[in-house]
Write a structure and sequence with these properties.
The structure is a single chain. The protein is an all-alpha fold and 180 residues long. It has eight helices and no strands. The two termini are 25 Å apart.
Length: 180
Amino acid sequence: MTLLDAILLVGSAAVGMGMFQGVRRALFRGWIWIADHRLPDIHTWWTWDVIVTCSDLMVFLIPVVAPWTVLLIVLRMRSPRPSWRRIWRQPGMAACLAALLGWCWSGLALILAIDVGYVARSRRTNSLEDWARRYLADEVFMYVGLAVAAAWTVQFFSGQWRRSADWIDVMGRLWAFSGS
């Protein structure tokens, strides 16, 4: 890892966190319990409280995981880089590329849904904020997680799983576990 790599990682995380704060304040106010309240009392926790708290804590990884996923792909494309055949076999890069494909696929679904919503807007009963929350919670994470799981399954069963020892592939694998 070079100093430029570290600067790009910090910068992209800062941009992601700034965008996250803007969207959270404008669109998702009150949706993340920990951000608007405090942690529940640990002595009175039920199983549901643990699940909700863990999912709320995972939400705070999104502003780091999303920009770093794209940045890791860009950093892998710099020379000197392995051949394309080796890049496709690295599980970290496969996860980053699959996550990017999942985001694009869910973005296409969002564009189509907005188009249909525009045509049928007189019959829409949900507000745009409620619909966006539901879309992000139900669709985006499902597509990204499914894309990463499918890429890793195909790699593993086809014998193409070749772990690399460099930091880009290791971070790609870590982000796949934390973000998917």
